[in-house]
Design brief:
The chain has a single domain, classed as ABC transporter involved in vitamin B12 uptake, BtuC, CATH 1.10.3470.10. Helix 13 packs across helix 14. The protein contains 14 helices and no strands. With about 350 residues, it is mainly alpha-helical. The model has no long low-confidence stretch (mean pLDDT about 85). Helix content is about 75%, strand content about 0%. The two termini are about 25 Å apart.
């Protein structure tokens, strides 16, 4: 293949990445609009988008008081929570799979969700926690998610932070916190146990603008740090020894990326509960579509995760309306057959 042909192929591949990115952005806007228009008071898509744009361009777009209340006070906080949470989970899944070189790695297989679940169960079943008031459950979930991750990082640091030790430490933490959660639920009151289980399934119903703002700020800071290290992730894919010979501090980079990813996931999980499969499936689908360059895969995995989560939430709200199902159960239903299909149809490696 000549140099000119290589350049043509490279430009086509870059164009494919750009097209896929804009396709995801357009899909997110469309699904968000459909989701915001549906509910107990159904609105047309035109009314929905007009209510949104009226807030920023009141001279050009009109909106009714009913549409404003439904869109801005009730539906958009839930939708934006789904977007930022899905984006964060997609990015976190991409990073954990890259640094651990394991296609089954995700924030949840590393025990972070189990730690958060134990913290939330402790707050719900016993009323004990570091932070009181309305943030008792959230504070406990965040604290124990971080605690679980610090234990993993501490154990891995003693063994040179290899991918194998991180995965084994994560599995150990997952079983430990799951066992402690089960014991708490065994001795808890029936109603409290029901509430703890409902929290653990994962739901966007507790969304509000202040919570969305907290996750958005955390997401922006963490993604910025992860993008800076995306080139190092590409180099580390060639092997630790090769990366070290090229000047990458493999151990330090792996620990830093795990710490940043942990902070991001802990912030999301403490507000939404456990939402699985997003961080596992989104990076795989992204790699199939645009290749394995983490400079592109990382942000696009976030967009794919956001699209998957708000789509799952739309299904959760409408499939048995007016009953709203927990979105964590829907992501599992969507993720499992999708993942099996990917396994059956995979013809080449994307790592």
């Amino acid at each position: 293949m000549t140099t000119k042909e290589v350049k043509i192929q490279y430009k086509k591949f870059i164009g494919r990445k750009i097209f896929f990115t804009f396709f995801l952005l357009a899909s997110i806007i469309l699904v968000a609009g459909i989701s915001a228009s549906l509910g107990s008071a159904n609105l047309s898509l035109g009314e929905t988008y007009s209510a949104v744009l009226h807030r920023f361009l009141p001279a050009y777009f009109a909106s009714s008081s009913l549409a404003d209340v439904c869109i801005w006070n009730l539906r958009l906080p839930r939708i934006f929570m789904g977007i930022v949470a899905g984006f964060g989970l997609g990015v976190a899944g991409c990073v954990t799979q890259a640094i651990l070189k394991n296609p089954l790695a995700s924030p949840y297989t590393l025990g972070i969700s189990s730690g958060a679940g134990f913290g939330a169960s402790l707050a719900i079943l016993t009323g004990s926690g570091i932070i009181g008031g309305d943030y008792l459950v959230i504070g406990n979930a965040f604290l124990f998610a971080l605690l679980c991750s610090f234990i993993i990082l501490g154990l891995s640091n003693r063994k040179d932070a290899t991918p194998e030790t991180m995965i084994l430490a994560g599995i150990a933490m997952m079983y430990l916190f799951s066992a402690m959660t089960t014991i708490l639920q065994y001795f808890g009151e029936a109603e409290a146990v029901k509430e703890a289980i409902f929290w653990a399934v994962g739901d966007l119903g507790r969304s509000s603008w202040p919570k969305v703002s907290i996750i958005t700020i955390t997401l922006a800071c963490c993604v910025f740090l992860l993008m800076i290290k995306s080139l190092d992730l590409n180099i580390m894919a060639a092997g630790d020894e090769t990366a070290a010979s090229l000047g990458v501090n493999v151990k330090g980079t792996r620990i830093l990326l795990m710490a940043v990813t942990t902070l991001l996931v802990a912030c999301i999980v403490c507000f939404t509960g456990t939402i699985g499969f997003i961080g596992l499936v989104a990076p795989h689908l992204t790699r199939i579509a645009i290749g394995g360059d983490n400079r592109f895969v990382l942000p696009v995995s976030g967009l794919f995760g956001a699209l998957l989560l708000i789509s799952a939430d739309l299904v959760a709200r409408r499939v048995l309306a007016p009953i709203i199902l927990p979105v964590g159960a829907i992501t599992a239903f969507m993720g499992a057959p999708l993942f099996l299909y990917m396994i059956m149809k995979r013809k080449r490696e994307y790592w």
